[in-house]
Amino acid sequence: MFNFINHRLMTMVQCVDARRFEAEEDRQTLVEYGLIIGLLSIVAIGAITFLGGTITGLFEDVTTALGGTVPV
Fold it and tell me: Is residue 70 within 8 Å of residue 63, measured between CB atoms?
């Protein structure tokens, strides 16, 4: 009888531990996605800042070549 109760208690503890592990894993995944999005945002802002003048100049050259006027 004691072995049966002990086995049932251990099974319940294992189920609770598995659920706790799944919840912790979900939170960890969410944090990882947040860090990836933050890093990509920083890289995108840096690239736009760094290449902004070059891209603007390229569009001005194309506009002038097509006979248009470049707005100031």
Answer: yes
